[in-house]
Amino acid sequence: MLENTARLLKVARAHNVPIATCFTAYKTERDMPHWKVAAVRDQFRLDHPSSTLDPRIYDKDYDVVVCKFGPSIFFQTPVVPYFIKEGVETVIITGCNTSGCIRASTIDSFQWGFRTIVPEDCVGDIEEGPHRDNLRDVGRRYADVLSADDVIAYIKQSTK
């Protein structure tokens, strides 16, 4: 998953595709929602290593980065105005937790009117069952679920 995402992002940056990168972190438990996932409550702190972006997929000199407070990159962040300013019509969603963050971001992208693509080999989850179930469902309703290679070909074709 990480290698495919890094490969896709390299092509996207080379073709001047706007990229919004996010992480989830909180100052204290008081400023976080009522997460049922203990790992989020325990580890997603601004001073915890889990809030550090992996340099294999994050380019500090290119990407717009946001700290998100819920599952979706769109919820209460400046991502939509950034995409509108950049003239984005299609959003490609990669990352962790297909059953949580990927699903929420996919639905929000769809609701904002963007064509949405989820490269299935650039997303993952803790368990294979929820990962597959959610990919199948968002593919039925909200997004095109493609391979990283297909998305790379799409980027190259649409940015000529």
Your description of this structure?
The protein has 160 residues and is an alpha/beta fold. The protein has a single domain (2-158), classed as 3-Layer(aba) Sandwich (Rossmann fold). 41% of the residues lie in helices and 16% in strands. The chain has helices spanning 2-14, 38-43, 79-85, 98-111, 128-141, 148-158, and strands at residues 20-24, 64-68, 90-92, 95-96, 115-119, 123-124, 144-146. Helix 1 packs parallel to helix 6 (148-158) and helix 4 (98-111) packs parallel to helix 5. The longest helix has 14 residues, at 98-111. The relative contact order is 0.17. One of its GO terms (molecular function) is hydrolase activity.
Order of helical and strand elements: HEHEHEEHEEHEH
Largest sheet: 3 strands, parallel
Strand content: 15-25%
What is the CATH fold-level name?
A: Rossmann fold
State the shape.
Answer: globular
Q: Give the CATH level 1 class.
A: Alpha Beta
List keywords for this structure.
160 residues; alpha/beta; 16% strand; Rossmann fold; 6 helices; single chain; three-stranded parallel sheet; Isochorismatase-like_sf; Isochorismatase family protein; Isochorismatase-like_hydrls; Isochorismatase-like_dom
